[in-house]
Design brief:
The chain is globular and about 40 Å long. By secondary structure, it is an alpha/beta fold. The chain is built from seven helices and ten strands. It starts with a strand and ends in a 5-residue tail after the last strand. The longest helix has 17 residues. It has one domain: Pyruvate-ferredoxin Oxidoreductase, domain 3, CATH 3.40.920. Helix 4 crosses helix 7, helix 5 packs across helix 7 and helix 6 runs antiparallel to helix 7.
Length: 204
């Protein structure tokens, strides 16, 4: 994929938003993108407070290090942040929004200007017993959803990237959740303002 891809992660303190942005950048670099950066929101990041992190992936050196203002891809770890994350100007035309939700993309809805992908990251985290401080770990399953819905970074690269950031045992269990999320992600594509439904199915 040519050009610059700007991704913004929306979540709450304690959900691993910054780590997810870093793993994606690592995976993209491993895959062969020469330009990758990740940057957290500056300011207080108390547990439960909304925060964002940015990832930029490019086929050229990245010279921009500010937060992403208008994203090609938005990944929403907490469904309650959907409206704020997709408010006017936050998503580029024909962009992609990926949401941790039990709802289908059709139930969430779209005005046709961007695609919507959903996956039950909480359910998958519980299935693989991934928790931190008593809360389900949803950041890594959403990496699988991003891989499936965007095609930007492969599962193989994400697996290598996560091994750079986690111990072997944690990387293994988290990657199982990532692969399952990849398989279960559902996408409502927006093309010429006429969304087309795409489902990953359950195939490996």
């Amino acid at each position: 994929m040519m050009g610059m891809h700007e991704i913004i992660w929306h979540g709450r303190g304690g959900q691993g938003v910054v780590l997810a942005a870093q793993i994606l950048a690592e995976a993209a670099y491993i895959q062969g993108f020469p330009g990758v950066t990740s940057a957290p929101t500056f300011g207080p990041e108390r547990r439960g407070a909304p925060l964002t992190a940015s990832t930029r992936i490019s086929d050229r050196t990245v010279r921009t290090f500010s937060q992403v203002a208008s994203a090609d891809i938005a990944v929403i770890l907490d469904e309650s942040l959907f409206d704020a994350a997709t408010s006017e100007g936050r998503i580029k035309e024909n962009g992609l929004v990926i949401v941790n939700s039990m709802l289908t993309p059709q139930q969430i809805g779209t005005d046709g200007n961007f695609s919507v992908a959903t996956v039950d990251a909480i359910g998958i985290a519980r299935e693989y017993h991934l928790s931190m401080g008593g809360s389900p770990v949803v950041n890594t399953p959403l990496l699988g959803a991003l891989s499936m819905a965007s095609g930007l970074v492969s599962l193989e690269s994400i697996e290598k990237g996560i091994k750079k950031k986690m111990s072997r045992s944690k990387a293994s269990s988290n990657f199982q959740a990532i692969r399952t999320a990849f398989e279960r992600t559902k996408v409502l594509r927006a093309r010429n303002s006429k969304p087309e439904i795409q489902d990953s199915g359950e195939k490996r």
